[in-house]
Amino acid sequence: MGQILETIMLVCFGFSWPLNVIKAYKARTTKGTSLPFIILIIIGYIAGILSKIISGQINYVLIAYILNLAIVSVNVVIYFRNAAIDKKVS
User: Fold this and answer.
1) What percent of the chain stands above pLDDT 70?
2) Which of 11, 15, 17, 58 is deepest in the core (most CB within 10 A)?
3) Percent of the chain with pLDDT over 90
């Protein structure tokens, strides 16, 4: 039951991050975006992945962690793209 609830949580987050990536990409600015927040989320996903590996619970939940980590990592790339755009505009 715990894994099912954990997966539901990860799926909910997983649907939110692509929307955030699209919004940031279209905004073309870092205004309203917090790089430290994104980094904290990445650290959290890495901790979740390591927890699964260390505890030997390598299952479908691990896939959700990895997918979410990949999507949030795209946010970092978009952030730096937007920072470059902000610098050109200033």
Assistant:
1) 100
2) 17
3) 78
- Is the pTM higher than 0.85? The answer reads yes
Amino acid (one-letter) located at 66: I
Q: How many domains does the chain have?
A: 1
The tokens for 31 are 């205004």
Instruction: Answer for the pair 44, 61: CB distance below 8 angstroms, yes or no.
Output: no
What angle do the packed helices 60-89 and 35-55 form, to 10 degrees?
A: 160
Q: Do residues 82 and 27 touch, judged by C-beta distance below 8 A?
A: yes
State how far the Cα of 43 lies from the Cα of 21, in Å rounded to an integer. Answer: 18
Structural domain range at position 42: 2-89
